[in-house]
């Protein structure tokens, strides 16, 4: 697990820095770049991994709302943003942020004869441009069978990422 590796690496680094009498030119203690990178990655990827579930438990989000992607999008942004201030703002002002999001529909053509409507949402916290949202269906295990659940695929046009929530 990443957290265990991080703790182990930190412990080794601290033991080595105590055991050596190395003095750097800057006068600052030696720095472990791998440890710093692992720490940043752990914080960015793991710190708020449970926060979207806490929002749902508090009743802020409505998981059964299949017609409006804004709650799912805010849950995704809480999990995806590396900025603690954005997470706090979404948690504290969820309803206000949700109401300030502006949405409209655009036609997207697939091939020569087929088009779909895609919802575009603007004023999404920490997003660099309007977000594209479209309903998708995912299969989830349910004992010895599977169930079909509606979810939202969100992406920022002209950027290479897409996430279903």
- Rounded mean pLDDT score: 77
Count of alpha/pi helices: 6
Structural class per helix/strand content? alpha+beta
The termini sit apart by 24 Å
Domains, number: 2
Provide the spatial order of strands within the biggest beta sheet. 1-2-3-4-5
Highlighted features:
165 residues, alpha+beta, 2 domains, five-stranded antiparallel β-sheet
Description:
The longest helix has 18 residues, at 2-19. By secondary structure, the chain is of the alpha+beta class. The two termini are 24 Å apart. The protein contains six helices and five strands, in the order ααααααβββββ. The mean pLDDT is 77.
Quick overview:
The protein is of the alpha+beta class and 165 residues long. It contains 6 helices and 5 strands. The chain folds into 2 domains: 33 residues, no CATH class; 114 residues, no CATH class.
Q: Which SSEs are present, and which pair or pack?
A:
Layout: H1 2-19, H2 33-46, H3 51-57, H4 70-80, H5 84-92, H6 94-100, E1 102-110, E2 114-122, E3 131-142, E4 145-155, E5 162-164
